[in-house]
Task: inverse folding
């Protein structure tokens, strides 16, 4: 091997699977990217997006230095000028209209980038606004609210012990495409297969026969948005058939009788009518959860991002608790990470409904308002109207409901700044874009997903490449901009040390540290000696000791759950006779809205079409491959329809994150792709009432032929 060829090890930070990569480089070129066989968590697994990390690094469309909008074009400016102008504008807006006239939107990649996690607060502190939005409320807010309510901390989230379970009920998740979510489980195809090889089974409940459903032991279609009936009926069956076993958690539970009473109206027969799943089948699901040793019930996007998202996630916790599947091997367990280990006294527990949004009165959670109200808060005049926006690694025009309305709202802002390296559907509205280094140019420790992993490991990796001269990391941008704003306001704010120093500090206070008396006595330096990652053991029962509730108990039913159960009981009809229910779809070669500029990921058969059952095509008088108009309450789009018996009758599926062919977007490859934005149809008024999380699945639409 020539001397200048180097081998680097680096975890992929594109999705929650955090696979270890082996990257060979020569100078500033990537020679190859493969799965790192020695990563104890991912074991050599890699998906096509991992290889495409190279394409982000080399992408000529990727911004390396700040740009400012000048008429219809962009000009490069220095960092000093950029920080100065942004600080001046944001402070001026706040001086004129009050602190809450500036809002934040933080997108998904923030949680995949440790410097953003550790340093965004410097900027937030300097701005002192109460108005924060993020992709959390387009996604996993129901999980956080449930954990906060039951276990006392929004991040105390149990995950399936997939490596030891013998029965797994997967509701509204498609890990074969997504590689797992709120369950960091790289190498998911093998992990699922291993359940079967040890004599176990897994069952998928989904309105679409997905890639995961195809390899499951059983797949059951469910009408979108009706899972709460199914889950309540499973709870009902557990009580009805005397199958409740709360095991070692019994003394901790408060409200078991109330729970029993709450699920009584929800019979399997009612659930059959609503969901389309036979009552006897529903009873069997409950019996299997109760009778099989090592059973786990897991639900993801399909059940979080729908009208009863929180109720569903809560009911899933209840099913695990009532079947002795919580905090036991093979059930749901809490990860024990080296950094960010949650135990009583840990900060960031969360709060709920401490204040409400100005226009629709929706509750905050953990200091954030639901992203569904972002546009109305910009468009509705009056005190507190949002007039300036800071976006951090987000593309809400494509990712939040009623993207058309948000697109208009952004265009009307007094000022917008984006910390992002692409000029896309959202950032094109910015006045100034501050681009950070790309992933391969900075070091990496996974702060979020080692806390959700199905096996405990820890891993730090150095940057693969030196960034170009003058480039800044996200965390440096937050420090510098935060200080520039603080200086103008006369605030005394200090920059934070580099993220690796903060991580080291946390690890040395964590459960594997010398301070905790752990034999590994972990420090960041020790972790660095294991560039493939260090195995720190399987999940262990620990819930009782880690509960963050005031009295160390679990209150089973909170008021917001009781209220949503009442709403569920009162719901009559979900759709009009000529309406279909729209659901989303993920593909292994997409990553939300922002990886369509990689040629290797977009080549091949198009995958943005609307899927519709052949019987529904006939009913609508449509030919396969026809152009159709999809109409929802908020608007209409035109696209191609594909006949597919993967989707159940009455349901259509359209993926999100497409729709790049529009003026102002500087993404050469992406903007050549056909496909429309699914969120030009999703409805900002359709939401999980308990949490305010968007309901992006189960949206009523009409399909019309285009002659
Ligand atoms: N209809 C429908 N809508 C959905 C979903 C769905 O299933 N259906 N899914 C929802 C979910 S789960 C999510 S998480 C959201 C995602 O929603 P968003 O987070 O708003 O959107 P992304 O497409 O992830 O856009 C990420 C942005 O971050 C930038 N970026 C990437 N890496 C970095 C980095 O390291 N630093 C910085 N500063 N910028 C970076 C990219 O250029 C891009 O502009 O979409 C939601 N929207
Ligand atoms: N390749 C790829 N991987 C990704 C992403 C990506 O965009 N592409 N995004 C990442 C992100 S941000 C996230 S949050 C995760 C999401 O991870 P997952 O939740 O595993 O991903 P989805 O494919 O959205 O799976 C949701 C499933 O719910 C089904 N569904 C829709 N409506 C309903 C319903 O009402 N009831 C039930 N039971 N099911 C329903 C859908 O058909 C779909 O199969 O994936 C992550 N990984
Ligand atoms: S599954 Fe793919 S995108 Fe996700 S971490 Fe692994 S290689 Fe990266
Ligand atoms: Mo997400």
Result:
């Amino acid at each position: 091997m020539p001397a200048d060829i180097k081998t680097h090890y680096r975890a992929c930070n594109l999705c929650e699977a955090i696979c270890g990569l082996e990257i060979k480089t020569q100078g500033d070129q990537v020679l190859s990217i493969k799965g790192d066989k020695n990563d104890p968590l991912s074991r050599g697994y890699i998906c096509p997006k991992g290889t495409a990390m190279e394409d982000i690094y080399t992408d000529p469309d990727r911004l390396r230095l700040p740009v400012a909008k000048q008429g219809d074009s962009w000009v490069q400016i220095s960092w000093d000028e950029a920080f100065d102008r942004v600080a001046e504008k944001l402070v001026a807006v706040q001086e004129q209209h009050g602190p809450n006239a500036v809002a934040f939107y933080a997108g998904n990649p923030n949680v995949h980038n440790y410097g953003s996690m550790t340093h965004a607060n410097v900027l937030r502190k300097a701005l002192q606004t109460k108005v924060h939005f993020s992709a959390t409320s387009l996604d996993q807010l129901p999980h956080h609210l449930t954990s906060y309510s039951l276990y006392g901390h929004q991040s105390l989230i149990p995950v399936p012990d997939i490596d030891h379970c013998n029965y797994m009920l997967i509701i509204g998740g498609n890990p074969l495409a997504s590689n797992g979510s709120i369950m960091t489980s790289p190498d998911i195809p093998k992990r699922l297969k291993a359940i079967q090889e040890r004599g176990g089974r897994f069952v998928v409940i989904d309105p679409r026969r997905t890639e995961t459903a195809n390899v499951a032991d059983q797949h059951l279609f469910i009408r979108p948005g009706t899972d709460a009936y199914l889950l309540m009926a499973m709870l009902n069956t557990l009580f009805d058939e005397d199958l409740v076993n709360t095991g070692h958690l019994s003394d901790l539970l408060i409200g078991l009788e109330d729970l029993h009473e709450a699920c009584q109206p929800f019979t399997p027969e009612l659930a059959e009518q609503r969901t389309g799943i036979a009552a006897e089948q529903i009873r069997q699901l409950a019996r299997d959860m109760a009778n099989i040793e090592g059973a786990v019930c897991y639900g993801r996007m399909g059940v979080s991002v729908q009208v009863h998202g929180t109720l569903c996630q809560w009911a899933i916790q209840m099913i695990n608790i009532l079947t002795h599947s919580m905090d036991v091997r093979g059930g749901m367990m809490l990860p024990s990470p080296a950094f960010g280990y949650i135990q009583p006294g840990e900060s960031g527990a969360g709060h709920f409904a401490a204040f409400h949004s100005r226009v629709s009165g929706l509750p905050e959670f953990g200091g954030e308002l639901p992203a569904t109200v972002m546009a109305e808060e910009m468009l509705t005049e009056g005190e507190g109207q949002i007039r300036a926006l800071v976006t951090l690694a987000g593309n809400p025009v494509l990712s939040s409901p009623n993207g058309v309305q948000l697109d208009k709202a952004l265009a009307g802002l007094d000022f917008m700044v984006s910390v992002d390296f692409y000029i896309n559907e959202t950032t094109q509205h910015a006045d100034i874009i501050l681009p950070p280094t790309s992933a391969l140019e900075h070091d990496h420790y996974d702060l979020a997903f080692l806390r959700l992993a199905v096996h405990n490991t820890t891993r730090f990796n150095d940057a693969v490449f030196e960034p170009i001269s003058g480039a800044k990391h996200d965390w440096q941008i937050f420090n510098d901009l935060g200080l520039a704003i603080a200086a103008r306001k006369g605030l005394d704010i200090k920059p934070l040390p580099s993220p690796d120093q903060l991580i080291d500090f946390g690890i040395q206070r964590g459960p594997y540290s010398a301070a905790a008396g752990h034999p590994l006595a972990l420090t960041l330096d020790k972790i660095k000696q294991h560039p493939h990652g260090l195995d720190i053991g399987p999940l262990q029962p620990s819930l009782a000791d880690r509960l963050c509730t005031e009295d160390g108990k679990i209150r089973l039913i909170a008021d917001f759950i009781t209220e949503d159960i009442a709403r569920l009981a009162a719901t009559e009809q979900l759709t009009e006779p000529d309406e279909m229910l729209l659901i989303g779809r993920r593909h292994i070669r997409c990553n939300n809205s922002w990886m369509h500029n990689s040629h290797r990921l977009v080549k091949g058969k198009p995958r943005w079409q609307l899927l519709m059952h052949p019987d529904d095509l006939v009913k609508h008088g449509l030919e396969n491959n026809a152009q159709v108009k999809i109409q929802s309450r908020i608007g209409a789009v035109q696209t191609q329809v594909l006949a597919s018996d993967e989707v159940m009758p009455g349901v259509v599926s359209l993926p999100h994150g497409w729709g790049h062919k529009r003026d102002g977007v500087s993404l050469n490859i992406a903007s050549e792709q056909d496909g429309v934005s699914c969120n030009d149809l999703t409805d900002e008024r359709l939401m999980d009432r308990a949490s305010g999380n968007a309901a992006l699945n189960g949206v009523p639409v009409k399909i019309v032929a285009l002659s």
The longest helix spans residues 79-97. Residues 155-338+552-567 form a domain with the Dimethylsulfoxide Reductase; domain 2 fold (CATH 3.40.228.10). The CA atoms of residues 126 and 491 lie 7 Å apart. The pocket of molybdenum atom (ligand 4) is lined by residues 108, 139 (CB under 6 Å).
